[in-house]
Amino acid sequence: MYGTRLFDQPEHAAVRERLGAFLARPGPLAVEIGFDHGMCILDRARRFPETRQLGVELREQRVIAAAENAPDNCLLLRMDARTLFTVLLPAASVQWLYLLFPTPPSSPKRVLLSAGFAAAVERALVPGGVLWFATDVPELDAAARTLFPWPEAPPPPLGVELSRRERVCRRDGLPVYRLCVARP
Ligand SMILES: C[S@@+](CC[C@H](N)C(=O)[O-])C[C@H]1O[C@@H](n2cnc3c(N)ncnc32)[C@H](O)[C@@H]1O
Questions:
Q1: Cβ of residue 140 lying under 6 Å from some atom of ligand 1
Q2: What is the pLDDT of residue 13?
Q3: Which of 17, 29, 100, 119 is at a distance of 20 to 30 A from 130, taking alpha carbons?
Q4: CATH number for the domain whose boundaries are 6-182
Q5: Domain extents for the chain?
């Protein structure tokens, strides 16, 4: 299932080890899913050096390019967020989750916002940990509100004000739906 067994294989063990070493370090952990060019996560990593910023993205070239600019407190991996949350992150380890403009699924296989994923996110967040979510797709907004019916929370630490997709939305006059909730 979306590569969940992949990181058991020897050729991927190095990634698992890097992740394990990063997770063993002190400091609050932020995760960004689908960081694209890394503008937001790299900016937060520089602004908040006391935090650990972990980013996952499917597009390999984006990961390679962004990782060249990552400071020591930022780990960027080519990985499916569903794998990260369902099999690799320890319970109650994530303080802030940034999920900005997830890709609308092109097939059922690619659905990110599912009940299983929501359960894995709930497990990985610390109690009181914050999900910061944005989309311009009404159906994804509705899915997120259904899957994460949690109390509203103040925004997590933010750096660059707008992600790349949000800039496009602003330019094109598209509505942006935002959700900021804390795991009970
Ligand atoms: C619409 S783009 C938004 C990029 C950026 N977050 C923004 O707001 O501009 C969605 C990004 O999520 C990545 N992505 C899609 N599904 C993913 C998954 N399951 N795990 C990790 N990244 C994913 C895509 O490769 C793409 O770069």
A1: no
A2: 84
A3: 17
A4: 3.40.50.150
A5: 6-182
pLDDT in tens, 80-115: 999 999 999 999 999 999 999 999 988 888 999 999
**Full-model pTM:** 0.95
CB of 99 shorter than 6 A to ligand 1:
no
**pLDDT tens per residue, range 31-40:** 999 999 999 9
CB 99 within 8 A of CB 179: no
- Ligand 1 pocket: which of 101, 136, 160 to mutate (most atoms within 8 A of CB): 101
For residue 161, the tally of other CB atoms under 10 A from its CB is: 9
Ligand 1 center from residue 126 Cα (angstroms): 23
Q: Band of the pLDDT at 51, cuts 50, 70, 90?
A: very high
By alpha-carbon position, which residue is closest to atom 27 of ligand 1?
A: 36
